[in-house]
Amino acid sequence: MSDILVRAKGLRREFGNGQNPVVAVAEATFEIREGDRIALVGPSGSGKTSLLHLIAGLDQPSAGVIEWPALGRAEDLRPGPVSIAFQGPSLLPPLTVEENVALPLLLAGRLPAAAAAAAQVMIGRLGLSDVAPKLPEEISGGQAQRAGVARALVGEPSLVLADEPTGQLDRGTALALMDVLLHQVESTGAALIVATHDAAMADRLPLRWSMNDRRLETGEVQRLP
Protein backbone atom coordinates (compact mmCIF):
# COMPACT_ATOMS: atom_id res chain seq x y z
CA MET A 1 0.00 0.00 0.00
CA SER A 2 1.43 3.38 -1.01
CA ASP A 3 1.93 6.10 1.59
CA ILE A 4 -0.81 8.65 2.19
CA LEU A 5 0.63 12.06 1.36
CA VAL A 6 -2.48 14.15 2.09
CA ARG A 7 -5.69 13.32 3.94
CA ALA A 8 -8.64 15.70 4.25
CA LYS A 9 -12.13 15.44 5.68
CA GLY A 10 -14.95 17.95 5.33
CA LEU A 11 -12.74 20.78 4.05
CA ARG A 12 -14.49 24.10 3.65
CA ARG A 13 -13.06 27.51 2.77
CA GLU A 14 -15.02 30.73 3.10
CA PHE A 15 -13.94 34.33 2.58
CA GLY A 16 -15.50 37.32 4.28
CA ASN A 17 -17.55 37.79 7.40
CA GLY A 18 -21.20 38.26 8.12
CA GLN A 19 -24.31 36.57 6.84
CA ASN A 20 -23.16 35.91 3.28
CA PRO A 21 -19.53 34.74 3.10
CA VAL A 22 -18.06 33.78 -0.26
CA VAL A 23 -17.67 30.01 -0.37
CA ALA A 24 -14.59 28.87 -2.31
CA VAL A 25 -14.66 25.20 -1.28
CA ALA A 26 -17.92 23.89 0.16
CA GLU A 27 -16.96 20.27 0.84
CA ALA A 28 -13.91 18.15 0.13
CA THR A 29 -12.96 14.77 1.56
CA PHE A 30 -10.10 12.86 -0.05
CA GLU A 31 -6.77 11.08 0.18
CA ILE A 32 -3.75 11.56 -2.06
CA ARG A 33 -1.34 8.64 -2.17
CA GLU A 34 2.22 8.33 -3.33
CA GLY A 35 2.33 8.03 -7.12
CA ASP A 36 -1.24 9.23 -7.76
CA ARG A 37 -1.84 11.02 -11.06
CA ILE A 38 -5.01 13.10 -10.77
CA ALA A 39 -6.81 15.39 -13.21
CA LEU A 40 -8.87 17.98 -11.33
CA VAL A 41 -11.61 19.19 -13.65
CA GLY A 42 -14.55 21.57 -13.37
CA PRO A 43 -15.79 24.90 -14.72
CA SER A 44 -14.17 28.24 -13.95
CA GLY A 45 -15.06 29.40 -10.46
CA SER A 46 -15.80 25.90 -9.21
CA GLY A 47 -13.07 26.01 -6.55
CA LYS A 48 -10.17 24.15 -8.18
CA THR A 49 -7.54 26.77 -7.39
CA SER A 50 -8.76 27.21 -3.82
CA LEU A 51 -8.57 23.45 -3.30
CA LEU A 52 -5.00 23.30 -4.62
CA HIS A 53 -3.98 26.11 -2.26
CA LEU A 54 -5.43 24.17 0.68
CA ILE A 55 -3.58 21.02 -0.39
CA ALA A 56 -0.33 22.98 -0.71
CA GLY A 57 -0.74 24.47 2.76
CA LEU A 58 -0.85 27.97 1.28
CA ASP A 59 -4.27 28.55 2.80
CA GLN A 60 -6.10 27.28 5.87
CA PRO A 61 -9.59 25.78 5.83
CA SER A 62 -12.50 27.51 7.50
CA ALA A 63 -13.75 24.10 8.62
CA GLY A 64 -12.69 20.50 8.34
CA VAL A 65 -9.30 18.87 8.74
CA ILE A 66 -6.32 18.45 6.40
CA GLU A 67 -3.06 16.70 7.24
CA TRP A 68 0.03 15.46 5.44
CA PRO A 69 0.86 12.10 7.08
CA ALA A 70 3.91 11.26 4.95
CA LEU A 71 5.08 14.83 4.39
CA GLY A 72 5.12 16.59 7.75
CA ARG A 73 3.71 19.84 9.09
CA ALA A 74 2.12 22.52 6.92
CA GLU A 75 5.00 24.91 7.61
CA ASP A 76 7.51 22.34 6.32
CA LEU A 77 5.85 21.65 2.97
CA ARG A 78 7.57 24.34 0.89
CA PRO A 79 10.19 24.44 -0.35
CA GLY A 80 10.49 20.71 -0.12
CA PRO A 81 7.92 17.94 -0.36
CA VAL A 82 5.12 19.97 -2.02
CA SER A 83 5.40 22.33 -4.97
CA ILE A 84 2.83 24.27 -6.97
CA ALA A 85 2.87 25.77 -10.45
CA PHE A 86 0.47 28.70 -10.23
CA GLN A 87 -2.09 29.63 -12.87
CA GLY A 88 -1.25 33.34 -12.83
CA PRO A 89 2.06 35.21 -12.98
CA SER A 90 4.34 34.02 -10.18
CA LEU A 91 7.94 34.69 -11.21
CA LEU A 92 9.79 37.21 -9.07
CA PRO A 93 10.40 40.30 -11.27
CA PRO A 94 13.97 41.12 -10.10
CA LEU A 95 15.25 37.59 -10.84
CA THR A 96 16.11 36.04 -14.18
CA VAL A 97 14.29 32.92 -15.37
CA GLU A 98 17.21 30.78 -14.24
CA GLU A 99 17.32 32.46 -10.83
CA ASN A 100 13.56 32.01 -10.39
CA VAL A 101 13.83 28.30 -11.17
CA ALA A 102 16.82 27.83 -8.86
CA LEU A 103 15.20 29.71 -5.97
CA PRO A 104 13.45 26.72 -4.27
CA LEU A 105 16.75 24.85 -4.17
CA LEU A 106 18.55 27.81 -2.63
CA LEU A 107 15.82 28.21 -0.01
CA ALA A 108 16.18 24.51 0.79
CA GLY A 109 19.89 24.96 1.42
CA ARG A 110 21.41 23.79 -1.87
CA LEU A 111 24.75 25.37 -2.78
CA PRO A 112 24.40 28.07 -5.46
CA ALA A 113 26.43 26.21 -8.09
CA ALA A 114 24.42 23.02 -7.63
CA ALA A 115 21.13 24.94 -7.66
CA ALA A 116 22.09 26.73 -10.88
CA ALA A 117 23.12 23.47 -12.55
CA ALA A 118 19.83 21.77 -11.63
CA ALA A 119 17.87 24.81 -12.81
CA GLN A 120 19.66 24.76 -16.17
CA VAL A 121 18.75 21.10 -16.69
CA MET A 122 15.06 21.69 -15.93
CA ILE A 123 14.96 24.86 -18.02
CA GLY A 124 16.35 22.87 -20.94
CA ARG A 125 13.68 20.21 -20.57
CA LEU A 126 11.00 22.89 -20.81
CA GLY A 127 12.61 24.46 -23.90
CA LEU A 128 13.56 27.68 -22.14
CA SER A 129 17.35 27.74 -22.43
CA ASP A 130 17.25 30.75 -24.77
CA VAL A 131 15.41 32.88 -22.19
CA ALA A 132 17.22 31.64 -19.06
CA PRO A 133 19.14 34.94 -18.57
CA LYS A 134 16.10 37.13 -19.20
CA LEU A 135 13.86 38.83 -16.65
CA PRO A 136 10.16 37.90 -16.44
CA GLU A 137 9.15 41.16 -18.12
CA GLU A 138 11.22 40.19 -21.16
CA ILE A 139 9.50 36.87 -21.89
CA SER A 140 6.04 35.84 -23.08
CA GLY A 141 3.21 34.67 -20.88
CA GLY A 142 3.59 31.14 -22.17
CA GLN A 143 7.31 31.12 -21.42
CA ALA A 144 6.62 32.43 -17.92
CA GLN A 145 4.09 29.65 -17.43
CA ARG A 146 6.65 27.03 -18.44
CA ALA A 147 9.24 28.62 -16.15
CA GLY A 148 6.77 28.28 -13.28
CA VAL A 149 6.43 24.58 -14.04
CA ALA A 150 10.23 24.23 -14.18
CA ARG A 151 10.46 25.88 -10.76
CA ALA A 152 7.82 23.49 -9.37
CA LEU A 153 9.70 20.43 -10.65
CA VAL A 154 13.33 21.32 -10.00
CA GLY A 155 13.38 20.27 -6.34
CA GLU A 156 11.93 16.80 -7.06
CA PRO A 157 9.04 17.18 -4.59
CA SER A 158 6.83 14.33 -3.42
CA LEU A 159 3.66 16.11 -4.57
CA VAL A 160 3.37 18.41 -7.60
CA LEU A 161 0.30 20.63 -8.01
CA ALA A 162 -0.17 22.31 -11.39
CA ASP A 163 -2.96 24.86 -11.85
CA GLU A 164 -3.94 25.12 -15.54
CA PRO A 165 -0.29 24.66 -16.61
CA THR A 166 -1.13 24.63 -20.34
CA GLY A 167 -3.65 27.48 -20.33
CA GLN A 168 -1.45 29.93 -22.26
CA LEU A 169 0.26 27.41 -24.55
CA ASP A 170 -0.36 26.27 -28.10
CA ARG A 171 -1.27 22.61 -28.59
CA GLY A 172 2.21 21.38 -29.44
CA THR A 173 3.87 23.18 -26.54
CA ALA A 174 1.11 22.02 -24.17
CA LEU A 175 1.65 18.39 -25.14
CA ALA A 176 5.40 18.76 -24.69
CA LEU A 177 4.92 20.31 -21.25
CA MET A 178 2.67 17.44 -20.17
CA ASP A 179 5.32 15.01 -21.41
CA VAL A 180 7.87 16.68 -19.13
CA LEU A 181 5.48 16.73 -16.17
CA LEU A 182 4.64 13.05 -16.53
CA HIS A 183 8.24 11.99 -17.16
CA GLN A 184 9.45 13.89 -14.12
CA VAL A 185 6.90 12.45 -11.69
CA GLU A 186 7.43 8.96 -13.08
CA SER A 187 11.17 9.26 -12.54
CA THR A 188 10.82 10.52 -8.96
CA GLY A 189 7.68 8.66 -7.87
CA ALA A 190 5.91 11.92 -7.02
CA ALA A 191 2.15 12.35 -6.96
CA LEU A 192 0.69 14.83 -9.44
CA ILE A 193 -2.53 16.84 -9.53
CA VAL A 194 -3.27 18.89 -12.65
CA ALA A 195 -6.21 21.30 -12.61
CA THR A 196 -7.28 21.72 -16.21
CA HIS A 197 -10.09 22.67 -18.57
CA ASP A 198 -8.39 20.76 -21.38
CA ALA A 199 -9.98 17.34 -21.92
CA ALA A 200 -6.95 16.10 -23.85
CA MET A 201 -4.66 16.94 -20.93
CA ALA A 202 -7.04 15.43 -18.37
CA ASP A 203 -7.28 12.22 -20.38
CA ARG A 204 -3.54 11.66 -19.96
CA LEU A 205 -4.00 11.14 -16.21
CA PRO A 206 -5.50 7.92 -14.83
CA LEU A 207 -7.50 9.45 -11.96
CA ARG A 208 -10.28 12.02 -12.27
CA TRP A 209 -11.59 14.40 -9.63
CA SER A 210 -14.34 16.89 -10.38
CA MET A 211 -15.27 20.20 -8.74
CA ASN A 212 -18.93 21.10 -9.15
CA ASP A 213 -20.52 24.04 -7.36
CA ARG A 214 -17.41 24.19 -5.14
CA ARG A 215 -17.82 20.58 -4.00
CA LEU A 216 -15.21 17.92 -4.72
CA GLU A 217 -16.54 14.71 -6.20
CA THR A 218 -14.24 11.71 -6.12
CA GLY A 219 -16.45 8.73 -5.36
CA GLU A 220 -14.56 5.59 -6.23
CA VAL A 221 -12.07 7.73 -8.10
CA GLN A 222 -12.60 7.10 -11.81
CA ARG A 223 -9.81 5.24 -13.56
CA LEU A 224 -9.58 6.15 -17.21
CA PRO A 225 -8.52 3.58 -19.84
Provide key terms for this protein.
single chain; 225 residues; alpha/beta
Question: Tally of extended strands?
Answer: 9
Read across the widest sheet, the strand sequence of neighbours is 5-6-7-3-8-9
Please state the CA-atom Rg, rounded to the nearest Å.
17 Å
Helix percent reads: 25-40%
Give the overall shape, derived from the CA principal axes.
globular
Ranges with pLDDT <50 over ≥5 residues?
220-225
Distance between the termini: 22 Å
> Main beta sheet, described?
6 strands, mixed
Mean pLDDT: 91
Q: What is the chain-wise order of helices and strands?
A: EEEHEEHHHEHEHEE
Structural class category: alpha/beta
Proportion of residues in β-strands: 25-35%
